[in-house]
From TrEMBL:
Taxonomic source organism: Pseudomonas savastanoi
Keywords annotated in UniProt: DNA-binding, Transcription, Transcription regulation
Ranges for domain HTH lysR-type: 120-177
Protein name: Transcriptional regulator
SUPFAM superfamilies hit by this protein: Periplasmic binding protein-like II (SSF53850), Winged helix' DNA-binding domain (SSF46785)
Length: 415
């Protein structure tokens, strides 16, 4: 047997199967990790030294998730033993005393064997991540295209796996426990890495692909820019499926964070930390009118005329009102609609005017019945952004889709 310089026996390290105890040498005394202090402690009846150096798991999957109590057979002393995820049995180091355990060996001893990952159903981890985002079994089932019983069964298995309730019902919502929040912080980037690794390994051929792309578009973008993009996608990739979600600067961040969309196009503000963003174009607002009065409207006429406003949230004011307020003027909104489609028809035959992005004005005036002109006040340009999930930055299919969005939504002259 090997001994150190002090003559102590050195344990033989075993690449364990998590279903069995580590048995380095025949004998007696159990060594355990106290997860509360993240330090090593030896059975107090032994003559071994008691190293206190801190060790934090290097692998997220090696997090200690629960404690149990076993008895040291030679002396009957109770020893707290950690259960290492996801093994159902404690990992023990059995030594013959007197012995010395080098502190730098502990990470190697207690690091989880990669073979143990075979015990983990990756689908369970995806269900867990979805529940963390949705806080509802019903919504998680809808998002994953599963039945509620399947999600409930998966949650039950997750609770057994982590030995924690994970979610506690509060009213109509499910709030995560402290342990669930801790697991999510470790698990989410790991799943992103897995997704990236898998996507990089796969080729993408638009002509034969049957991929489903989930994108978010603001209403003005969907109305004015999506039709030309869709024609190109149908020509290049007839087998793909495009799912469009309505977004704005408020809805975009949570949809990206939860993975419900992989890319979005809209005016944006705050985004998830791992999201990426690119300016597609800079746009100026245009005045839309259906009357036959010659010449552009003056500022007085602009403020006196009734206005229509396109607002997804049903607001009766917008950025134009902020500009008017700066010069001590205001307008009168008489109509608010949730989408651009049909706006020209609503203005026809009335004195109502509307303010719309320049790219929306081009489409609305092309059909006839309305015309556009510059506003009678100076306004700032606004940036139309494309934002996407960092985890899918190098996905071949997503890169192809983003290139087509850039091609048909971008305006090189304005960048």
């Amino acid at each position: 047997m090997k001994t150190d310089r002090a003559g102590h026996l050195e344990p033989r390290l075993v690449n364990l199967d998590a279903t069995n105890f580590i048995r380095a040498l025949p004998g007696t005394l159990s060594v355990a990790i106290d997860s509360r202090h993240a330090c090593h402690r030896l059975c107090p009846v032994s003559c071994m030294s008691q190293p206190e150096s801190v060790w934090k798991p290097r692998c997220a999957m090696a997090a200690i998730v629960r404690m149990s109590t076993r008895h040291c057979k030679p002396c009957g002393h109770s020893v707290a033993l950690p259960l290492i995820f996801p093994a159902p049995d404690p990992h023990l180091l059995v030594l013959s005393h007197p012995a010395h355990v080098p502190t730098d060996k502990w990470p190697e001893i207690f690091r989880m064997n990669r073979n143990d990952l075979r015990r983990v159903d990756l689908n369970l981890l995806i269900v867990f991540e979805t529940l963390m985002h949705e806080r509802s079994v019903t919504r998680a089932a809808e998002k994953l295209f599963l039945g509620q019983p399947a999600i409930s069964a998966a949650l039950s298995r997750l609770r057994g796996l982590f030995d924690d309730p994970l979610f506690v019902r509060t009213g109509r919502s499910m709030e995560p426990t402290a342990r669930a929040t801790e697991i999510f912080g470790l698990l989410s980037p790991a799943l992103d890495s897995i997704s990236t690794a898998v996507s990089r390994a796969s080729e993408f051929d638009p002509a034969t692909s049957t991929s489903v792309f989930r994108i978010g578009l603001s209403d003005d973008v969907e109305f004015a820019l999506l039709p030309t993009l869709l024609k190109r996608l149908r020509s290049e990739a007839p087998g793909i499926v495009l799912v469009v979600r309505r977004v704005n600067y408020i809805l975009m961040p949570p949809l990206l964070a939860s993975g419900e969309i992989s890319v979005g196009v809209s005016y944006t503000q705050d985004l998830p930390a791992n999201a990426k963003r690119k300016v597609l174009r800079r746009s100026k607002p245009q005045l839309l009118r259906a009357d036959s009065i010659p010449g552009p409207l003056s500022l007085d006429d602009f403020c006196a005329r009734p206005h229509a406003l396109v607002s997804f949230a049903g607001d009766l004011s917008g950025f134009i009102d902020e500009h008017l307020e700066k010069i001590d003027r205001k307008r009168h909104v008489v109509l608010a609609v949730p989408q651009f489609n049909g706006l020209a028809t609503l203005l026809t035959g009335t004195d109502i005017i509307a303010t719309v992005p320049d790219y929306a004005a081009q489409v609305l005036t092309a059909a006839g019945g309305v015309r556009s002109e510059d506003l009678p006040i100076e306004t700032r340009t606004f940036e139309l952004h494309m934002a996407w999930r960092g985890a899918q930055d190098n996905d071949p299919g997503e890169r192809w889709l983003r290139s087509r969005i850039q091609m048909f939504f971008g305006d090189p002259d304005s960048l």
